[in-house]
Design a protein that fits this description.
CATH topology of chain A: 60s Ribosomal Protein L30, Chain: A
Largest sheet of chain A: 6 strands, mixed
Number of domains of chain A: 1
CATH architecture of chain A: 2-Layer Sandwich
Low-confidence stretches of chain A: none
Radius of gyration of chain A: 15 Å
Mean pLDDT of chain A: 97
Helix content of chain A: 25-40%
Oligomer: homotrimer
Number of strands of chain A: 8
CATH superfamily of chain A: RutC-like
Distance between the termini of chain A: 20 Å
Amino acid sequence: MSVSDRLEERGLVLPAVSRPGGNYVPATWVGDILFLAGQVAMRDGELVATGRVGGEVTPEVAKTAAEVAVLNALAVAQDAIGSLDRIERVARMTVYVASAPDFTGQSQVANGASDLLVYLLGESGRHARSAVGMASLPIGSPVEVELTIQVKR
Amino acid sequence: MSVSDRLEERGLVLPAVSRPGGNYVPATWVGDILFLAGQVAMRDGELVATGRVGGEVTPEVAKTAAEVAVLNALAVAQDAIGSLDRIERVARMTVYVASAPDFTGQSQVANGASDLLVYLLGESGRHARSAVGMASLPIGSPVEVELTIQVKR
Amino acid sequence: MSVSDRLEERGLVLPAVSRPGGNYVPATWVGDILFLAGQVAMRDGELVATGRVGGEVTPEVAKTAAEVAVLNALAVAQDAIGSLDRIERVARMTVYVASAPDFTGQSQVANGASDLLVYLLGESGRHARSAVGMASLPIGSPVEVELTIQVKR
């Protein structure tokens, strides 16, 4: 199955790539490595939730936010490489989770992002991951994801 | 215009590279990729500000701090590669912003860093960026920047 | 001296590689670069300490936690490449330190990780480093380390 079949199977649609809110770009290339800018949990021009996980935002909602952020990153990747089937490997993903002081479930939130990558990309989606707890994130997003992708030559 | 012309035009001078405060180095090479250590907002041996943005530090001051940190990173890059004109591309920049719990303007702070990179390096300075909010940063710096640079062969 | 001699000299043993707590892998390859997943301060199935540095955890204990996290990362690296003597260079290490709001000694904590890398690997262990302060980390670990390693071809 192609990645677009997988997306359809789940009823998911890649969003349009939004313009960065600053003097940077959504992706850069170095050889066959694609460096993606951090993506927050924005859908249709609005965050799906705002605040810290373990505070205003539940872990379950944050998992969904992580999925939304991953879809934004994949939309950028598709834009850069033409087709997500050309992904050789997601090399690294850092999942930044805005966290209330006592919240230590960053891994569970990040699983939302990881599970979606593996569902959509299979073995190519299996990445090295770091999940960490932040004081806060841009515009109040509960999650931001940063991907580094190797593309088939 | 060369990068050094651009620096002069702005009245900016690259600082001397300071010795790392630990058992590490300011930069490492892998092929044509230069990995730079995180740089804080140190100028002439002192931080230009200390504390969290949205708390003791205003977003405007933090933008300046981000510029100072970028200049420190570029000084390291010049030291490693001889001339900043040999930068092919700033591949990735992560901007860590020490943030009061309710501060969500990390992108605006990071724009200080991004705008300076693009001003000095033109298209080569356009990077994939992540801006995130930290509980705190070394020695109380309001900003720390981490760059990954591709150098012309 | 080989890396295993160095480990023995210090009375250190590389731990078994633990299964990731999610849909990801401990390491990925892109060419000769090995991207390692974040590692926390887990030893024999338990964290060596829990909480924030500058709060429940002292900087000295956190230094030890940083060493433990590095050993976990090196165990993964050995598993991936067969022998740690094949490390060409630790290109980058990010040291995430769970920090009480007023704690700004992240560099000292990170020195625990850096010193151990250089002790074990010599010049090959000298890395570009970022040390940053987090709101919290998975399962309450005081430290998480993320390494990017270049391997000899």
